Amino acid sequence: MTKSNDFFDQVFQVVRLIPKGRVTSYGVIAKYLGGSARVVGYAMNASHTSKPKVHAQRVLNRNGQLTGKHHFETPFLMQELLEQDGVKVKDDQVINFEKIFWDPFIELKID
DNA sequence: GTTTTGACGTAGC
DNA sequence: CGCTACGCCAAAA
User: Fold this and answer.
1) Which nucleotides of B are covered by protein (CB under 7 A)?
2) Can you tell me which residue has its alpha carbon closest to the C1' of nucleotide B6?
3) Helix, strand or coil for residue A89?
4) Which nucleotide across the nucleic acid strands is nearest to A59, CA versus C1'?
5) Which pLDDT does position A6 carry in this prediction?
6) Which nucleotide is nearest to A36 (CA to C1')?
7) Is there contact between A7 and strand C, defined as CB under 7 Å from any strand atom?
8) Which of A6, A62, A84, A94 is deepest in the core (most CB within 10 A)?
9) How far apart, in Å, are the Cα atoms of A61 and each of A4, A45, A78, A94?
10) Whole-angstrom Cα distance, residue A48 to residue A87?
11) Rounded to 10 degrees, what is the CA torsion of A74, A102, A98, A32?
12) Eight-class DSSP state of A8
């Protein structure tokens, strides 16, 4: 039992809360959980071991780019999954990224 | 145990 | 406007 497991789990939970057709970024989640963006990406790497499967494709970098596609089974899978969610992807970048951006500080805002 | 690296982000030059 | 540097923290070597 380690603290890192707890942080990973928190990342997983937040990612799972992302609605269909929405995306978010590592940095925002990191900031929301009080960690670093790198660790969030690291958590995503471990996400495939988590059940149910974490929608890692909905988590992108600050630029809205599919930076982590290379970590999927196939580099195309990440884009396809996003498109299946109704998210348009062009040149490894999400279209209307700001429009579909899902911010935990707003959506999960604690009054 | 130390060193390197990594699905990031911001600041500086 | 592109590259370097640094901070962040954890996993792998």
Assistant:
1) 6-10
2) A38
3) strand
4) B7
5) 83
6) C8
7) yes
8) A94
9) 21, 14, 14, 10
10) 21
11) -100
12) H
Tell me the two tokens of residue A64: 């809205």
H-only helix segments in A1-111: 3-16, 26-33, 37-47, 75-84, 97-100, 104-107
Which pair of structure tokens corresponds to residue A108?
């999960």
Low-confidence ranges of chain A (pLDDT < 70): 1-4, 109-111
Residue A32 Cβ under 7 A from any strand B atom: no
Length A21 CA → B11 C1' (Å)? 33
* A49-66 per-position pLDDT tens digit: 887 889 999 999 999 999
Q: Is the CB of A63 under 7 A from strand B?
A: yes
